What does this fold into?
Amino acid sequence: MEKNYPLCKHCERRLVPKSIAKNNSKFNKFSKSKCYICKDIFETLDSMLFNIYEKTSNFDFKTFNLGLTLKHSYLERDDYLKSKFKIKGIENLKFSISNELAKKIVKKTKSKKVSDHPDIFLQINFKDESCKIRSKPIFVYGRYNKKIRKISQKLKSCEKCNGIGCHNCNFTGLENIESVEGKISSFFKKKFDSAQVQINWIGGEDQSSLVLGNGRPFFAKILNPKKRNRFLQKSSNLDTVSLSELRKLSVQPKGSVPFKSEVSITVDTKNSISSHTLKKLSILKNAEIINNSKDKKNTPKRIYDIHYKKLGKTTFVLDLFVDGGIPLKSFIQNSDLTPNISELLENPCLCTKLDFKNIIV
Ligand SMILES: [Zn+2]
Ligand SMILES: [Zn+2]
It folds into this structure.
């Protein structure tokens, strides 16, 4: 004798085409017992939806997508009935629940369900009744100026714990130093209500260098932002660092961006130097810089323009217009770079000040 399989209206609609349902008593639609397949999961969607609405209310979004985690036994019973009654080509239970949830979320939040690049993705888990939300990152382009020395460009890992987090670093994993990265990150974190920001630098400088002119360009990736619709002003003053040309990007920039720098370098020489000797530097105009260190395999870099001025017996200023990515201190001091200022002048040189006047992309 055939056992009866009580089905809820959702599962019945899904499994049993109308023409068959009429005369088929195997699916007991008048039963008051729980649905054989889904155990009346559709009746419990409201409490899950309540949870979802509460979580999504913290997020700015126009589009969403969702994924479901369901106990395996549900899907097994679904498959069992389908194979037993040779039912083919119908949507599965997961799909059916997703659709039901999506319909309600669309209505309530006035948003749209999309499969590609949704603003937020809802991971709904019926095993533990949880709902997790991931939001699409925001990309921002901008430039920064550094108006005083002694601010490093990047955050540094805590020396005591190597970034793991300890009492020394207040469990941040970071050295407590002022940095451009720290300032930009906290600005975007606050702005977009995000917990993490990654910055892609276009070139770098050490903490003693100023960044003047139009500033150094950067790309910021703001991860899991809650407030994606916040208005971003073109410029922002973060005290010792200022930001300009800020704009949200619709797509993530790919690869590295070539750039050129205008720099002003103050050089101290070991032995006194004459204006006549400095004239040797003129040959550097349009010269190619070759990095002879074995591990470096980079594209050729060039010096486009060079100006120099003697400041004192053992000091001169060097203004350069160069390709980005040349290690400029090494270019002044003795190193694997050829040509090299110290070698060219036959006088050991030391870079005492290096400021970026402009960076061109
Ligand atoms: Zn059901
Ligand atoms: Zn630490």
Summary: The chain has three domains: 9-134, 138-249, 260-360. The chain has a mean pLDDT of 89. The two ends are 79 Å apart (CA to CA).
